[in-house]
Specification:
Length: 190
């Protein structure tokens, strides 16, 4: 999602797709999105591929990277992860699997494995752990990043880090939270 939103991001993703599948170490340059679509169709129509498009949030991403299954060889599979089911209707997908969101206990466990290398917090860290989980809004990647960042630190370092996150969020954490938040419906944002 982040790359696709940059200027020439879709072109960059098309070039990466082509070079990864074709095993071409030299960088393939497609120039623009329309040419990229044509190159993908022409160069990959006989290749059997497993293509995973993660965190898709706009139909243009699907249209430019995997518009139709016939762009790829027989037996190819395309896996798409998205928060927006509407993106999966045109063209319709063959099979849809809904992943349930992390509940509080799952979020706690994921964070704790990264922060403490065990499934629950140390007694002195329970309150701070709850604050971090609330701050991360249950986003798995944010929980992982925060847990890894806080691993091995003292309680005072945790308090200081949490204050710092709230004042001026760590850039990677901020991006993770913004991306996750932006992907929610207006009702879910409240």
């Amino acid at each position: 999602r982040e790359i696709a939103k940059r200027e020439y991001g879709l072109v960059q993703l098309q070039e990466t797709l082509l070079s990864e599948i074709l095993g071409d170490s030299r960088s393939l340059k497609v120039g623009n999105v329309d040419r990229g679509i044509n190159v993908i169709k022409y160069r990959l129509c006989s290749k059997r591929v497993l293509l995973i498009l993660d965190d898709v949030d706009q139909s243009i991403q699907l249209e430019t990277l995997a518009g139709e299954l016939n762009w790829f060889g027989l037996g190819s599979r395309i896996i798409i992860t998205t928060r927006d089911e509407k993106l999966l209707t045109n063209p319709p997908v063959e099979l849809m699997y809904k992943v349930k969101e992390l509940d509080h206990n799952e979020a706690l466990q994921l964070f704790c494995w990264n922060a403490f290398k065990r499934d629950k917090p140390f007694d002195d860290y329970v309150e701070l752990t709850e604050r971090i989980i609330h701050y991360a809004r249950g986003l798995p990647l944010a929980l992982t990043v925060l847990g890894s960042d806080l691993h091995g630190r003292s309680i005072n370092e945790w308090k200081s880090a949490l204050d710092k996150y709230k004042r001026s969020p760590n850039k990677s954490i901020q991006e993770i939270l913004i991306i996750g938040y932006d992907g929610l419906d207006d009702n879910e944002n409240d």
